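ARCHIVE CARD
Drawer: 12
Card no.: 0347
Subject: one protein chain, sequence and derived structure
Cross-reference: see card 0346
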Amino acid sequence: MSRIFEYIIGITGLLVSAGLVGWGFYRMLKASYDPWKMAFKWAVTIPFIIACIWFGHKMGPFGPFLIVFMAIILSIMWTPHIAETIFSPLTDLFDGGSREPDKKPLYSVAIAKRKRGLPLEAIMELRKELAKYPNDFEGVMLLASVQAEEMQDLPGAEITLNNFCHSKKAGPKLVTAALTQLADWQLKLAVDVEAARAALQKIIERYPETEQALQAEQRIAHLVEAEKNLLGTHDRQAVYLPTGAKNIGLMDSTEFLKPKEIEPGQLAAAHVKHLEAHPHDSEVREKLATIYARDFQRLDLATLELAQLINETRHSPKQIAGWLNLLANFQIELGADIATVRATLEQIVERFPKLPLAEITQRRLERINSELKGREQAATGIKMGTYEQNVGLKYGRPGGR
């Protein structure tokens, strides 16, 4: 029984060894620039080595000379391959080596036909590539772009993008990019605010409480304004200009000719009303904080508005650092003590210690004393206007502010 077991072990080892040797030969042939030439060399080398060993054993004292002759012949045959194996890690850095390039779709033909004004042919080429590489993002977006822009087939483009968004390959960033592009086409090509809002709403529903959802909410907040701009470009109305003032050179003053600026109170009220409908519009909230600080000298109200932006974790570190710096500027301008300003700026260092923002803020903290003195000197002699101090509190702000 033990003899049979030994035979089995021996045969198994022999098969494994043969398999490893065969796999090594296969990899070597596959990596070679000329596999047939490599195979021929192996076919010559193995019998040549066996013959030299056999004749060397028979020739007695002349055997070593035959071995030297065999070594010279083999070195001539195999030196190029040995050198290639040794130096290939270095040369691969420059020429890419023998590794096969990654297979990827080619859209050059479709793009060329699109540029030549052949959208149908371009769509056919794109569908051929997408059949081989289903749901490739670049190809899907090219196909939807041709459908929407050249073929004026916005429903077809919407179907293409929706199919991609429901595929397993579609991650949050790709889905957000696709639906945002769809919203842009709905607004630009169809001037359909509701359809654009529906596309952006899908992002919010699919990825709630994420950065993608926050960006979609902010875009929704500006859809009406974008619609007005687009309608203005499509339906330009005649503009009637009033008769200009005569004898302007003889007038004592021309102040009445200057366009009237919107009063800060009215502008703040408009921003408050907008934020009640779109509380995540960071652009408008920053403008409102600036009006509170610069026009009404209300650091407390400006701080409340900026705090909502700063404490929203879905904003990027760069945005949060920008608002903290802006708050520090308001604190310096409106006479806050140095400890308050430092505490504001130190939040950047504490929250983002590994980002360049922390280093930049640290440098500002080192010169904050001179910055405060400079602002104090600049503020000397400046007389500020008098405004309603509770603006914003009387406009029904959310949260009872």
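Annotation on reverse: Residues 265-400 form a domain with the Serine Threonine Protein Phosphatase 5, Tetratricopeptide repeat fold (CATH 1.25.40). Residues 32 and 126 are 35 Å apart (CA to CA).
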